[in-house]
Amino acid sequence: MDGARLDLVLDNRTDEVARLLAAFEAFAAGHGLPHKVTMQVMLALEELAVNIVRHAFPEGGRHRIEIGLELGADHLVCDLRDDGLAFDPFAQAPPPDLTGSTAERRVGGLGVHLVRRMMDEVAYRRDGGINHTRAVKRW
């Protein structure tokens, strides 16, 4: 199991996120990842990938999102790379409004919060015009 990799290249379309999730689910099952870990990572991957697709490319056009998943003995590293607008979701996204009932809250704003809660480490850096988002899950 240690050292297994899954590498994908997605187009910046929301339908590509389903392909990512299906590929990860098969990868996780094939390597015996615990069910809870699989579900938490799927949620994090979905949130991160959807945010890239929806917000990183306001000018439109076709762009690539590179996904690299690397399995260690007791952890999974998820790397997402894109050439969209520079944006650190972990430093720049506004904190979610967790007050009031669910019906009273505005839609959105919980994705980055959920990623932070589901994953054990999160990081962002911009290098050479490329956004690098990393999330690590341990078990």
UniProtKB/TrEMBL annotation:
InterPro entries: Anti-sigma-factor_SerPK, HATPase_C_sf, HATPase_dom. GO terms for molecular function: ATP binding. Keywords: ATP-binding, Kinase, Nucleotide-binding, Serine/threonine-protein kinase, Transferase. Residues 13-137 form the Histidine kinase/HSP90-like ATPase domain. This is ATP-binding protein. The lineage of its organism: Bacteria, Pseudomonadati, Pseudomonadota, Alphaproteobacteria, Rhodospirillales.
